[in-house]
Amino acid sequence: MRIFIVLGHPDGESFNAALANAYEAAARAAGHEVRRQDIGALRFDPVLHQGYKDLPPLEPDLAESQASLLWCERLVLIYPMWWGGFPALLKGWLDRVLTPGFAFLYHKKGPGWDRHLSGREAHVISTSDCPALYARLWYRNADFTMLARAILGFCGIRVTQRLRIGRVKFLDAAARDKAIGRVCAML
Questions:
Q1: Using CA atoms, how far apart are residues 69 and 166, in angstroms rounded to an integer?
Q2: pTM of the model
Q3: How many CB atoms lie within 10 A of CB 9?
Q4: Residue 110: is its pLDDT beyond 90?
Q5: What SS3 class is residue 178?
Q6: Is 152 in contact with 122 (CB distance < 8 Å)?
Q7: Which residues lie below 8 Å from residue 168, measured CB to CB, with a gap of 6+?
Q8: 102-141: string of b/e by CB count within 10 Å (b at 16+)?
């Protein structure tokens, strides 16, 4: 399988990076082809200054992101839940990469659209400082829902697995290792 891993935490030394490293190593060990991008290391303007009315040209890192999305069979997003959602830099990456004409295209007549990234699946892995149950009950997993329905699903990518690792700031080394094992088991 061709897997594209996106680390959505801006800090390449974070626990999210450790999760991405583990998923990548497990995928390679299982014989999968893997590409990876770390959001914090990319050079791009995350803001659509004029919305989708006048799209700026893609920076080379974003062109590589689009090429990897076309190449992959599975997208893996790993990010922290901040304020009930995901980091602004990851949202900016999604805004800039999943553009009209590339990821989807509205029909000229009628309310429909074409999902240009159909046939792909996604694994979504999110960490939070609150308990995972709290994120589900209080926040109603808003970040997962937005990705599965309004963003990835809109473009045709089906979320097949999702995992929330809660209480991250309270996890000791053994609990972090257990969480890493859960991520590797997703393959």
A1: 28
A2: 0.96
A3: 24
A4: no
A5: helix
A6: yes
A7: 15, 80, 127, 128, 129
A8: bbbeeeeeeeeeebbbeebbbbbbbbbebebeebeeebeb
**Domains of the chain from N-terminus onward:** 2-184 (3.40.50.360)
- Give the DSSP H or E segment for 36: strand 33-38
- Round to whole Å and give the CA distance between 151 and 141: 14
Output the six-digit token pair for 179: 């969480």
pLDDT at 134 over 90: no
**pLDDT at res. 184:** 97
Q: What's CA 94's distance to the chain center, in Å?
A: 8
In the chain, the amino acid numbered 51 is G
Nearest to 128 by CA among 118, 116, 141: 141
Q: How far is CA 69 from CA 72, 94, 144, 178, in A?
A: 5, 11, 19, 30
**Whether residue 133 has pLDDT greater than 90:** no
Which residue type is seen at 8? G
According to the model, what pLDDT value does residue 136 have?
86
Q: In the structure encoding, which two tokens stand for residue 55, read together?
A: 């799209």
Residues 2 and 18: beta-carbon distance below 8 Å: no
Label the pairing between strands 49-52 and 74-80: unpaired
> Which residue do the tokens 């040209």 mark?
57
